[in-house]
C-alpha cells in the first residue's frame, strides 16, 4: 500500500469509525469515494445543525428539543418505575415520556454524559427550558453521533451490497440517500433522533437481504422499541419472513425458522422491556403512553387524507372519536391488504422493499394520529429503491420534504431547507440521468402498460407526460415554498399556506400510493412474461 | 500539459515561437496527438440541463453549484473581525467623499486595501442599502443584523462566480489524459475539484470572512489568459488585481519577467537562449500603456488630491510586527522558535542574564512586536532582502530557460512561497497564494503532485487556528478531511502508474498532524498548562507546519533548478 493511502486511512481512522465493509474490498478507489461521500454528508449535517431548533426561545412549552432534554432530566433523576407515571416530580403534561423504552435508555445515556459536562443541564425541575450555546452544541453532537454510528453505516453498507451496479452508481446512490433533506432537516435542524430508529430498520433490511433473518429481526425489534411509529414497517417485515417460512415448507425447515424468529423477537422485546416486566400495571402504563387514542384523528396540518378531507368536511366534528378510530383502521387495513398478501405469497427482496414503501405510505395516509414527521418512515424505504427507479424516488423524496415545510418554517430552517433541497436535486440529477429515465420501462410500468394496452394507447407520449407532470409539481412546490416564506396570508385565511402545502402533498402521496401498488401487484406478470420471451 | 506550448497547436497569435517542449518525454508520450482535444470522450453521464455548460462539461456546473450550496450552508457560522472590517469599509465608501476614504479612522479597521477594492465596496454599498441601511452608518461599530450577515455572505458567494469562471478557463488549459475514460480520473475534473472545493478558500472566505475568491479568480484568469497566449489580457487582469489587493505584488516578478521574456522578445535562438534582436517595442509600449492606464485609473484621483503618501502609508503598515498574531508557518516561525528554545536553554544553564531578557509574551494573539533574546532582531529591511534573494533564482530560471506557461507557473508559485517564507508580517492565509497556482501544476506531473500534497496539507492545517470556536471545530475537521482524502486519493489514482507520490519520511510527517491536532484541540485544553502557557498549541502548530512548508519550498526549488540543468544538458 502506498504511503499516501496510509495517510488518508490514518486521517479517517483517527476521527471516524469506518464500516468494515470498506476494508474487505480491494478497490481503494471505492473506499476513498465512499469516505468522501460520508464526509460530505457529515459536513452538511453539521452545518444544518448550526441553525435554529424547534421551540428555540419559545416558553412555556418550547419544542422537541426541550422534550428530549426533559427526558434526559427525567430518566436521570427518577427511578425507572416512575418514568412513565405522572408523579409530583414527573408532570406528564409537560413533555411526558411517550416513546418506548429504548428511547428512554438513550436519554439516560445522554443524560449521564451531560451530567459529566454540566449538571445544570439535567437538574430536576430547575433545568426546565434550559437553553445555552454549549448545551445546544452538546445536544447537536448527540444526534450527530447517533446518526454517524447507526444510520450512515447502514446506508453505506446497503449501497455497497447493491448488486449489478458499478462502483460509481453505488457511490452516487449513497450520496443521494445521505443527502436526503427530510431526515437531515428533522434530525439536525428541528431536533429528533429519527436516524436511530430508521437506522435500526435499515440494518434490519440489510441483514434480511444477506439472509441473516434472526439478526434482521433483532434489528427491527430495536427499531420498534425505539419508536413505536416503526409499526408502519412491521407488516412487510412480518409478511416477508412469514412468506419465506411458507416457501421453505411449513412442516420442515420453515417451521424451524418461524420458531427461531418468533423466539428471537420475543427475547429481544423481553430484554428491552426487562425493567418494566415486573409489574403488569407498569407495562400497561407504558402502552397507554405509547398509543394515546384520545388525541384525535390528526394533529396540526399533516399531509394525510383525513386532514386534507377536513378542508371539505369537518370529520372531527361529524364523526365520533370511536368511529374515527374504526374508520381509519378499516381504511388502512384495506389499503394494506393487497401488498401484504402479495408479499406473503411471493416473498422477494425487491417486493419487500416496495412493500415497505407502500405499507408505510398507507399508514401515513389513512391511520390514526399521524404526525407530519412520520413521512420519514416512508422516505427511508423510498431511498432504498432510489437506484432502481431514480425518477419516481427522487420525486417522492422532494415532495416528502416539501410536506414538512410548515414545520420547518416554524423552526426557522428556511435557508437550510432551500439549500438542502436544491443540493439534493442537483446530486440526483448529476448522478442519475433523471430526465432520461422517464420511459415506461424505467418506471417499471411495462407489465402494467401491457395490461392496459388493450384499452388505451397514449403510452407513446408517456415519458413526456411524466416529465411535464414532474416539472409542474416542482414548480408548484417552489412557488408555494417561496410564498410561504415571504407572503403574508390573507387575514381571513391564516392557514392558507400550510393547508395548501398539506393538500398538495396529500394529492402527490395518493398518486404515489397508486403507483407503488401498481408496481407491486404487476410485478410477477413481469417475470412471467420475461420467462415466456426467453 | 500546457496546450500553448504544444507544437502543432493552431493558435490565434503567431507571436510566440518559443516552442521548445520542455517536458520529460516519459511523462507525456508524443506531444503531437491532439493537444486541444481534452474535451473528447468522458461525456458526463447526465443528459445535461440548463445549468450545464456546452461540450459535455456538465460535471463542472454540478461541482460549482454544489460548492455554492455548501457556501450557503456556511452562512450561520462564526465570522471574524474581518466581517466588521468590510462592513466598516462599506460604510466609509458609501458615506464619505473620495478624499476622506483613506483618512477616516472612526473604527480601528481603517481602509488599507488599494482603491479598486474601495470602489468595489462602494458598488456593493449601493446594493447593501436595500438590505439594511443601518450597516452603512460609520458609527455602527460591530453591527451585525441578520440582513447584514446575509448581504455580506451572499456578496462573497456571488462574487465567487468570477472564481468559478476562472477555474473553468484554467481547466481548459489542462490537457486531458487521452486514455482516461472515467470522468473521475480526468486531470481537468481533479483540477476543478482541487480549486473549487479548496479547503483554505472555503474557510477563509466563507467562515472567517474575506473576499479572496474573486481576487484569486482574477489571478487564475490572468494565468489562464497567459497560458492561452492572450498576453495583453493577462497583463491587464493582473494589473487590475494589483489595485484590488496589493499582496499580489509578491508574484509580480514572475509576471514581469515572463511577459518581458515571452512577449516583448518574440523569438528564441535554436538552443533556447534569448534572441536579442527580436525585441518588440510595440509590445513593450502596449504593456506599459496597460499598466499605466490601470494605475492612473486607480491612483490618479488620489495623486490629484495629493493624498498618495497617505494612501501608501495605509497600504504598507510597517509598524506591525514581524509575525502576524498567529505565526504564519514560515521561516520566521522557526527563527522565533529557535530563539525561544535558546533562551530557555540559556536560562537553565545560566548562559544568559535573566534581567536582560525582554519580557514579551509570545503569541498572545494581540502581540505585534516580538523581541528576540538570543538571536539578532529582524528588521523589515532584512526581511525584504531575504525575500528578494530567495526570489532571485526562480526569476533567473524563468529568464534563462523559459519553459512557456509551465515555467511561468513554477516561478509564480516559487515567488509566492518565497515571500511567504521570508516576508514581513505575513498572514497564514497568504499560503493560498502558493497553493492555488500549484494545483494547476499538480495534476500534470507526479513530482509536483507530491509537493502539492505536502504543501496543501500543512498549509491548510496551519489555517486551523483561524477558527477557534467550538461549533466550527467539526466543520473545519470534516472539510479538511474531505479535501485531504480527495486530493490524496485522486492524485494517487491519476499517477498510479508512477512511483509513490510521497516517501515514508513525508508520510510519517503528515500522519503526525493527526496527533498534533488531537493534542492541540482536545488534550491541551484539559491540562493545567492552558492557563500558564496558552500559546503552546499555536506555537506547536505553526512550527510543525513551518517544517513542512519549508520542506515543500526547498523541494520545489530543487526540482525546478535541477530540471533546468537537465534540459540545458539535453539542449547541448
From TrEMBL, chain A:
The chain crosses the membrane at residues 6-24, 31-48, 137-159, 171-188, 200-224, 254-276, 351-368, 375-402, 414-435, 469-487, 499-522. It is a multi-pass membrane protein. GO terms for cellular component: endoplasmic reticulum membrane. Belongs to the ALG6/ALG8 glucosyltransferase family. It is an enzyme of class 2 (transferase). Keywords: Endoplasmic reticulum, Glycosyltransferase, Membrane, Transferase, Transmembrane, Transmembrane helix. Pfam families: Alg6_Alg8 (PF03155). It catalyses: an alpha-D-Man-(1->2)-alpha-D-Man-(1->2)-alpha-D-Man-(1->3)-[alpha-D-Man-(1->2)-alpha-D-Man-(1->3)-[alpha-D-Man-(1->2)-alpha-D-Man-(1->6)]-alpha-D-Man-(1->6)]-beta-D-Man-(1->4)-beta-D-GlcNAc-(1->4)-alpha-D-GlcNAc-diphospho-di-trans,poly-cis-dolichol + a di-trans,poly-cis-dolichyl beta-D-glucosyl phosphate = an alpha-D-Glc-(1->3)-alpha-D-Man-(1->2)-alpha-D-Man-(1->2)-alpha-D-Man-(1->3)-[alpha-D-Man-(1->2)-alpha-D-Man-(1->3)-[alpha-D-Man-(1->2)-alpha-D-Man-(1->6)]-alpha-D-Man-(1->6)]-beta-D-Man-(1->4)-beta-D-GlcNAc-(1->4)-alpha-D-GlcNAc-diphospho-di-trans,poly-cis-dolichol + a di-trans,poly-cis-dolichyl phosphate + H(+). It comes from Cairina moschata. Pathway: Protein modification; protein glycosylation. This is Alpha-1,3-glucosyltransferase. Its EC number is 2.4.1.-. The keyword Translocase does not apply. GO terms for molecular function: dolichyl pyrophosphate Man9GlcNAc2 alpha-1,3-glucosyltransferase activity. It is found in: Endoplasmic reticulum membrane. Coiled coil: none annotated. Dolichyl pyrophosphate Man9GlcNAc2 alpha-1,3-glucosyltransferase that operates in the biosynthetic pathway of dolichol-linked oligosaccharides, the glycan precursors employed in protein asparagine (N)-glycosylation. The assembly of dolichol-linked oligosaccharides begins on the cytosolic side of the endoplasmic reticulum membrane and finishes in its lumen. The sequential addition of sugars to dolichol pyrophosphate produces dolichol-linked oligosaccharides containing fourteen sugars, including two GlcNAcs, nine mannoses and three glucoses. It comes from the Eukaryota.
TrEMBL record, chain B:
It is found in: Endoplasmic reticulum membrane. Its main location: endoplasmic reticulum. Keywords: Endoplasmic reticulum, Glycosyltransferase, Membrane, Transferase, Transmembrane, Transmembrane helix. Its EC number is 2.4.1.-. Pfam families: Alg6_Alg8. GO terms for molecular function: dolichyl pyrophosphate Glc1Man9GlcNAc2 alpha-1,3-glucosyltransferase activity. The chain crosses the membrane at residues 59-79, 149-167, 188-204, 234-260, 280-305, 381-401, 407-426, 474-495, 507-529, 535-554. GO terms for cellular component: endoplasmic reticulum membrane. It is a multi-pass membrane protein. Pathway: Protein modification; protein glycosylation. GO terms for biological process: protein N-linked glycosylation. It comes from the Eukaryota. It is an enzyme of class 2 (transferase). Belongs to the ALG6/ALG8 glucosyltransferase family. This is Alpha-1,3-glucosyltransferase.
